[in-house]
Amino acid sequence: MDVKTGFFYLFSVVLLLSAFRVVTARNPVHAVLFLMLAFSQASGIWLLLNAEFLAIALVLVYLGAVMVLFLFVVMMLDINVDSMRQGFWKHFPLAAVLGGVVAVEMGAVLLHGFGQTEAIEGAAQAAGVPNSKALGILLYTEYLVPIQVAAAILLVAMVAAIALTLRKRKDSKFVSPSEQVRVRAADRLQVVKVATTQPAPAIQEAAQEAQS
Length: 212
Fold this sequence. Notes:
The protein has helices at residues 3-24, 28-48, 52-77, 81-85, 88-127, 131-139, 144-165, 177-181, 185-188, 201-211. The protein is mainly α. The chain contains ten helices and no strands. The chain has a domain at 1-80: NADH-ubiquinone/plastoquinone oxidoreductase chain 6, subunit NuoJ (Four Helix Bundle (Hemerythrin (Met), subunit A), Up-down Bundle), CATH 1.20.120.1200.
């Protein structure tokens, strides 16, 4: 077994373990961290397949932006884990079916995807251009519509994450900036006129008794 095969098995084992911990971790923050670890191992496997552009894009886009955003959103939402676990077995059959469909689709991609990778490498070598440039030409010519659909889905996910983060919370002390700008001194400050000197109550009562 050569070094490349050893790294492939290492990245694959860590990827499978981290993916398993994503769905079994009880803490949502830990699940997101395991997902980030799974993405890093997937980028390593892509590097072994000479798909350096996809590996770098996975690290920069997902690990550097999307997953960090998800991590902050999960931490800010203050999710009640106990309430989420109550309907686990109720939704387990549907989740199992969807998981099986995803597994079948991934198996089909793995079985037929390496030929496409070899085709891209062959086209890049024949045209005398780098692998990243050949992949970009392929994506923005034959797969332009799926790229646009994926961009729209990511935009919707970003807007939803911002909307969930900026929702009105009861435990948050928030003051509208527009109200702060329109505030007036008369609304916040009230001047009350008081006498300069006032006798103590006990002395005042004693004086009144002496006069009576």
